[in-house]
Amino acid sequence: MTKASRIGPLFTDLYELTMAAGYYEHHMFYPAVFTLFVRGYPVHRNYFVAAGLEDALRELEQFRFSQDELNYLKTTHLFSNAFLSFLKAFRFSGNIVALSEGTIFFENEPILEVEASLIEAQLIETFLLNTIGSQTLIASKAARCVHAANGLPLIDFSLRRTQGQDAGLHVARSTHIVGFTATSNVLAGKMYHIPISGTMAHSFVMAFEKEMDAFSAYSKTFPHNTVLLIDTYDTLEGARNAARIAHEMKTRNASLMGVRLDSGDMVDLSVKVRNILDEAGLHDVKILVSSGFDEYGIADVLSKGAKIDGFGVGTKLGVSADAPFMDIVYKLARLNDRDVRKLSPGKVTLAGKKQVFRSTDSTGTYREDIIGCRNERIEESMPLLEKVMENGKIHGPYPSLQIIRDRFKHNFSCLPEKYKDLSQDTPRYPVKLSRQLEDLQNRV
Fold first, then answer.
1. Rounded distance, CA 74 to CA 315, Å?
2. 3-state class of 318 per DSSP?
3. Biggest distance spanned by C-alpha atoms of the chain
4. How does residue 7 score in pLDDT terms, banded at 50, 70 and 90?
C-alpha cells in the first residue's frame, strides 16, 4: 500500500499531554502495560472484526513531535520548557502484541496490549482508540453485509457520505478486508490496490436530450465496461432502452455488463427488469442496485425474491448508521511490576499482561475463547495475540490485504451460524477467564 501521510502526536486529547507532563514532573518513567478492548456489543451485534492495525503501526513508527508542533504547545502556556525539551527527543520505543487484522473477536477480549514507558503508552491512547475503533466498527458492519448478501458481490459506494477524507479511505479498506469486491473510491483503489467500480449518475442521463442518447454515448465511451442507470425517468422503459443499446453494442463487438436501479420497489422492479432483459435474450446482463442498503436491506429484498446480482452499499455502511459507535477503551493493566485493575461499577478491567486463547471442535468450528495470562499455555487452544511491534519498529513484514481477506474468510467460516444472526443479541459467544488469570484478579 501507499504509506499514509503523517498524522502527528497532536492528534490527541489534551489530557494525554497534561498527564504526560505530570508523569514527567514527578519522574514517573515506569514501564507500563495498557490493554485496548471493546466493552460490550452494539445492538444486534455478536462479534467484531479487527481492523486498523496497519495504519496504527505505521504512524507509531514515525511518532515524533516536530518543531512546529512544539512551538504550538509552547503558546498554550500549559507546559514547562523542560517538558517540551523532553518531547523534542520523544520517540515511541515500545512493544505491542495484537490480534491480526481480519480476526474475529468478542467483547472484553484484548485487541492489543502496549508495553512501553508510562508516558509513551499514555500519549498514544487517543490515536489508537480512534484508529482501531473506527475501522473495526466499519469492518464489523461490512461483514454483516457480506453475510446477508450470501455470495453476491458488494461494492463500497459510501465515499460521498463518509465523515471526512480519511474516513472514506478507511471504509474502503475495512470493507475490502471482509469481502467487498470493489469500491467507488479511486484514491483507495490506488493506495490499497482495491478494484474500483462505478457507473453513472442521473445527471449524466439528464444532460442528454433523450435517455437513449445518454445510454448510447456512454456505451461508446466504455464499450467493455458499461452499466446503465435506468431509473432516471421510467425504470421499465429504461430497461427496454438498455436492451436496445445492448443489441446495438453487439454490432460493435461490445457488450452491456449491467443495469443499475437506484430507487423504487427493488423487489418488484428487479423482477420486471429481469423479465425484460431475459425476453430480449440478455440473460448475462446483471442487475445491480443501490440506495440506502445495509445488511438489513440486503437480507430483506433477497428474502422476498428480488432478482439482484450485486449491491452498491453506501451511507448506512460508511457511517455504521444503526450502531455509529462502540465502547472501545484503553486501560492500564500493569505499572512498574505491579498488576493493576479498575473496579468502577460496570467498568471493571482485567489486570496483568494477557493472551486470548481460542478452542475449536473437531471440525474447526469455534467453541470458546479463554482470556488468560500472557505466559500461559492452554492445551488444545490457539493464542491469538501476536507480537506486531518491537522497540518501536514493526515486527516483520506486514501482510498483504489479500492475506488479511483470506484470514477473515477463514475466521468467518469457523464462526457458528447462530452468532451471525442480524437481528438477535443472543446467544453470546462464550468467553471466560483462565484459572490463572482469575487468581491474578483476586490477588490484585
1. 41
2. helix
3. 81
4. confident
